[in-house]
Design a protein that fits this description.
Blueprint: H1 8-22, H2 39-51, H3 57-69
Length: 79
């Protein structure tokens, strides 16, 4: 419980300021952005929440074949 050590609103403000510092840092060669721990996962979560989880072609084929085998409709957006 972070509130045992610091006021929760102050903690959130400090975290926001810390994360904001990453936006002004120059990225290392070969990278486009400096990210705080957890940011890549958050970006992936947002993307997959919006657009779904990408599936490999082989996985789609296996799911489609199994659905047909058991006479289950395959969602059109899966094909």
């Amino acid at each position: 419980d972070i509130a045992t050590f610091i006021d929760l609103d102050e903690y959130k403000k400090n975290v926001d300021e810390f994360i904001g510092c990453f936006d002004v840092l120059p990225p290392a060669k070969g990278f486009s952005k400096v990210m705080a721990p957890g940011m890549p996962e958050w970006i992936t979560w947002e993307e997959r929440t919006k657009n779904g989880i990408p599936l490999a072609a082989g996985t789609v084929k296996n799911l489609s074949d199994t659905a047909r085998r058991f006479n289950v409709a395959v969602p059109s957006d899966l094909l």
